[in-house]
Give the backbone structure.
Amino acid sequence: MYCSFMASKTILIPLILFASIVPANCNFEADVLYGWKTKLTDPSQVLQSWDPTLANPCTWYHITCNSENRVTRVDLGDAGISGPLVPELGLLTNLQYLEVYGNKISGSIPKEIGRLTKLVSLDLYRNHLTGSIPTSLGNLKSLKFMRLHSNKLSGTIPIKVIDLVRVGTLQVLNVSDNNFSGTVRPTNITGYAVTTIIQDPKLEA
């Protein structure tokens, strides 16, 4: 069953409210992903199998689901796609891997990504992302890998994100080749329990 909550562009429903009213027999994850597809340019047709008439997206290429048919992986690395990340991705609450590196993804990182509390890997590197890192990404306590390098991000790295290194499970934080201000160093003085933190070398005094 296909739910067309993405159809209206004029009515904005808070994501948390929407998640609570979606019927149990309606796979809204297919709507989320298909709605994202409609905003992407896909010259190589890698998303051709993303058919909204199917009961769920678990048979689509580049999508992995768990035993309950909930989406756990989106693998679109080096897929040749362009366009934005959409806030509705924050509804994929079982997602563990968001792999969208090596494309031409533009715009900002939606703050709603911070709702994906089961996320282990967030790989958005080598895209055209702009704006700042949302503070909400500091909610991703299960995250082990956050690779945002080679974009056009700016501002400072939120303290809540740095805390994922200090008190969380984050092992790799790569924000190099962006336009961030300030410095981050993997030294004992900082007290960060971390495998690797990579910041722009030109900013490290």
